[in-house]
Amino acid sequence: MTITSIIFFFIVFGLSLFLIFLLSKKEARGKNNRFINRPDMGIDEFYSCYYRSAGIPQEKVAQVLREIGNARGISECKIRPSDRFNHELAPLAGWEFGDGLIELSWIVNKKTGKIKKPKTINFNTVDDLISFIASKDNVEPSKD
Questions:
Q1: What are the beta bridge partners of residue 84?
Q2: N or C: which end of the chain has fewer CB within 10 A?
Q3: How far apart are CA 144 and CA 122, in angstroms?
Q4: pLDDT tens sequence across 7-48
């Protein structure tokens, strides 16, 4: 291998890394643009507005919001109960594979493992997920 081919390889490799970096920045900006005009709502305000009367513990609501925010790469202060996983929280076109929702699936599977008879569960909104997680914390583990 000549010095020229080694230099060419490193130039192509460096440009590829730079291109990947630029594309990931574009994807992150696109995700956050959906929520740019939405005011931030702290967990205390979020809980008071939507879940205090439901009897769901505030820490449970905060945990679900953190998980969704981490999985989707957005601030948890921008998330609302009516946000739909297939619309507001959906990945941008072309980025479906690395959408972060696998982490949410893992949490749900961990919770459903406590149920004696698993059933098909469909989460359309953030509220669906919060209600499900809160209800599963009250289920006794199966004795298999």
A1: 125
A2: C
A3: 26
A4: 988 899 998 888 777 666 555 545 556 788 889 999 999 999
Helix (H) or strand (E) holding 144: none
Q: Please, are residues 88 and 38 in contact by the beta-carbon 8 Å criterion?
A: no
How far is the CA of 115 from the CAs of 50, 127, 135, in angstroms? 27, 20, 11
Q: How many CB atoms lie within 10 A of CB 107?
A: 18
Residue tagged 């949490």 (tokens): 107
Inter-residue contact 4 to 46 (CB < 8 Å)? no
Model confidence, pTM: 0.63
pLDDT tens profile 82-116: 998 888 887 766 655 555 555 566 666 666 565 44
> Exposed, middle or buried: residue 79 (CB in 10 Å: 0-12, 13-18, 19+)?
buried
